[in-house]
Amino acid sequence: MNQTPNVTAMGAALLRAAHVVEDTPPWVLEDTVSAGLLTTAERALAAAELDSWPSEVRAAFRLAHAVRNRLAEDVAVEGLDAGRADYVVLGAGLDSFAWRHPLAARFRVVEIDHPATPRWKRDRLRAAGLTEPADVCFVPLDLTAASLAGIELPAPATWSWLGVAMYLEPPSSRRRSARSLLRAPARRSSSTSSSPTTSSTSWLVPSGQ
Ligand SMILES: C[S@@+](CC[C@H](N)C(=O)[O-])C[C@H]1O[C@@H](n2cnc3c(N)ncnc32)[C@H](O)[C@@H]1O
Questions:
Q1: Pure H helices in 52-170
Q2: Rounded distance between C-alpha atoms, residue 12 and residue 60, angstroms
Q3: Which candidate among 8, 128, 154, 209 keeps its CA 20 to 30 Å from the CA of 120?
């Protein structure tokens, strides 16, 4: 089990936040919360990696991170009308939906991540002067060690797992998580996956939804 906060979560937060700073409007996502959750040292650590990429690659990743969150959040909002007021964020990292989305108060947000990451995030939220909304719940869980089927989670719900599946090793734990998402009734999920040569966003919609 990881004992330290995940550096990939810092990178995703910085890329998402950079969209409004480095790209011209109209923006697909306006995340002015995430970057403020990082200390100067953490920002420098993540930025050192991102700055080593060619600018075109950085621009593409910036946009991809903004778009993937926007898509997942639009699906979540669409689900409100279908009775899905629970939004389960797998591998949430520094996801900022609950602190910035105009409709966040209409959701119960369940954030799942390695135990060290929610601990770290909650410290950061306090340091940034952000309170934890009553309807946000943090579930510390190592997805490679535990099955989602083993914990009580809401259904119906909208699920997102953005930038997570590729970190779940071995691949069998990836398949197990995907299977438990697909098996559950009345769930809708958005996920991203990538390999060294591809990156994609997909919608996993259980039959009948
Ligand atoms: C690239 S970050 C993405 C964070 C967030 N979804 C976002 O888009 O900002 C990957 C996240 O997956 C989490 N993660 C990786 N492996 C995990 C595991 N085995 N169990 C739970 N969370 C995991 C990391 O802690 C990290 O927060």
A1: 55-81, 97-100, 116-127
A2: 13
A3: 154
Structure-block tokens of residue 133: 């909304």
Distance CA(70)–CA(131), nearest Å, equals 23
Inter-residue contact 206 to 184 (CB < 8 Å): yes
113 Cα–ligand 1 center, Å? 6
Integer Cα distance of 33 and 65 in angstroms: 15
Best of 6, 69, 87 to mutate for ligand 1, by most ligand atoms within 8 A of CB? 6
The tens place of each residue's pLDDT in the chain, 209 residues long, gives 456 777 889 999 999 999 999 999 999 999 999 999 999 998 888 888 888 999 999 999 999 999 999 999 999 999 999 999 999 999 999 999 999 999 999 999 999 999 999 999 999 999 999 999 999 999 998 888 877 766 777 778 899 989 988 887 777 666 676 666 656 655 666 666 554 444 455 554 443 34
In ligand 1, which atom is closest to the CA atom of 11?
A: 1
Q: Which of 34, 186, 168 is nearest to 178 (CA)?
A: 168
124's tokens: 């950061």
User: Domains of the chain, with CATH numbers?
Assistant: 67-204 (3.40.50.150)
